[in-house]
Amino acid sequence: MAHRARPYSVARRELLFQRQRAETTALAVHDVMFERDYFLRLLKQLSALLAAILKLKREEKLDAALEQLQGAFPPFFGIEYRTLVGFDSASVAQLLVDSTRIKILAQLLEEEADIHRRRVDVQLSAAKQLHALELYIEAAQRNPADSEVSAAILRLSSRAELTDLGERYCQWLRSHPEIGARR
Q1: Among 25-29, 41-45, 122-126, whose mean pLDDT is lowest?
Q2: How far is CA 163 from the centre of its chain?
Q3: How confident is the model at residue 171 (pLDDT cuts 50, 70, 90)?
Q4: Domain-located, residue 116
Q5: What is the pLDDT of residue 10?
């Protein structure tokens, strides 16, 4: 006589389903909390770095400020400065994936542009501003609700020479009249 396995009762199946859903929810909450903590740590480190750079700029120690800024790239991005800034903005954005990390890189390049401007290297300052602007646009494409990114785009697009800006970024600016109006 063959033994037939009894199917789970409806109540047992519902209990298993609820347990699986609770485990999935707990994992998702854990992942969100871990990600949030990671970004908070990253922003805290960025604030400390920018404060140190600001202090060096006030003291007119521009070479030290530049060195500190460029030395921060491996801890923030896991890649050396020269390697990361050697890529075009779209490739860098694909590499960094997250809009927060892209925004941080744009902020650092904007700071670098200011240091070069203070050193009276106008061409290099302009190039860094354009690279920062392109990265801010990349961040805005990934997170359109980020008001800091929008403000940075407004600021840079109104003062940067846009003739060397990549065509896809010019198109993005034209498609966003609230930003294009200030150019």
Answers
A1: 25-29
A2: 24
A3: very high
A4: yes
A5: 67
The answer to whether 110 and 128 are in contact (CB under 8 A) is yes
Q: 138 lies in which domain range? A: 10-180
**Helices and strands (H, E) in the chain, number of each type:** 10, 0
To the question of pTM greater than 0.70 for the whole model, the response is yes
Q: What is the pLDDT of residue 80?
A: 93
14-27: average pLDDT = 68
The string of DSSP codes covering 9-50 is PHHHHHHHHHHHHHHHHHHHHHHHHHHHHHHHHHHHHHHHHH
Distance CA 79, CA 50 (A): 19
**Could you give the number of structural domains in the chain?**
1
Pull the structure tokens for residue 43.
């922003």
Residue 1 counted as domain residue: no
Place of tokens 């809009």: 99
Given CA atoms 98, 42, 76, 29 in this order, what sign does their dihedral have? negative
Q: Which of 176, 113, 101 is nearest to 142 (CA)?
A: 101
**Cβ-Cβ contacts under 8 Å for 135 (sequence gap 6 or more):** 89, 92, 93, 102, 103, 105, 106, 109
Cβ atoms of 139 and 90 closer than 8 Å: no
Whether residue 74 lies inside any domain: the answer is yes
Q: What tokens were used for 61?
A: 């120690």
How much is the pLDDT for 25? 65
Residue 79 lies in a domain: yes
Residue 182 has pLDDT above 50, yes or no: no
